[in-house]
Amino acid sequence: MLPAWHPDRGIRRTTLTLACAAALLITTGAVIDAPWTVGIGVWAMIVAIAIELIYRP
Length: 57
Description:
Layout: H1 7-32, H2 35-54
């Protein structure tokens, strides 16, 4: 019997959450002309991609 919670699902949710937050931060930073917000968004996207590459099933 399979467990109710799969670790891959949690990693996938984390990656998608980080990617969505990064897209929101980059867009908001570009609209309000705040480079530090764009920078935080870029780092969030880098972390999301790194997690996806490391924890690929």
